[in-house]
Input
Amino acid sequence: MSAVIETKKLTKFYGKSRGIIDVDLSVNEGEIFGFIGPNGAGKSTTIRTLLGLIFKTSGEARVFGMDCERETEKILRNVGYLPSEVFYYDRMRAIDLLNYSASFYGKDCTKRIKELSAALELDLGKRVEDMSLGNKKKVGIVQGLLHSPDLIILDEPTSGLDPLMQKTFFELIKRENERGVTVLFSSHILSEVQRICDRVAIIREGRILETKRISQLQENAYKKVSFTVKPGSDVRGFSVPGGGKFEVSGQSVSFIYRGDCNLLLSAIGKYPVLNVDISDPPLEEIFLHYYEEGGGASEHPAV
Output
């Protein structure tokens, strides 16, 4: 499977301030790839570099096999982009703005604009200055998809959308993906990434920490373990290699664990157990684990 997006040691500094450092990404054709990290981790810097909006300091960045700086115009003909914040000419009606955007692609997008606007319940006759934040975001979504691109890049796409419209948006992106479109989905909201993405890259302080399938992140993460023993049993001294944050309350013990499950069960089995629960932590806890391992915040924030 060919890579639609590929970066190698991609680095961007803003003067002396860090943007991103040695970012290696490979997004395959036809997948929905998550790019997660808190604000300032370097997500938007990476995206802007891929789109040729800013120039790298060093490294390589290619989209559709083309260099992101030398062949920007060719790349952008087939890319749909939704930035985290959208700004438009206030006095333009939505339909006029979208027709103006469509004119850059040299194709008739009339039918596509109507279909997307209907799905998102967007009033095309309304002026931008009279729109709510959510409706402006809808205009941005239609603008990014109206030319039926083969690659969609979404940077914090759901901000401003109510829960029902977020559901519609995800369904829309899934339909685009089903027709073969590749999607790069950047977000700091982990439930969104878990809901829609195949693989995910975690970025922290401008560096990629891990790139894995969502299921692999959960499988290889810490387990949440709790068990209760019969009255009269003393569990205050319980421990097991690979466990941590032990909490004892009466006859119950709870802790996090990463290691051999057989070793875990053997340690628990030494007690007269009444009940035991072993579960996967939510993705939020996995994400925090990656960040806590890396230490404190950097001196220079990324964007």
Summary: Confidence is low (pLDDT under 50) at residues 295-303. The chain has two domains: 3-217, 222-279. The longest strand covers residues 3-14. The chain has ten helices and 14 strands.
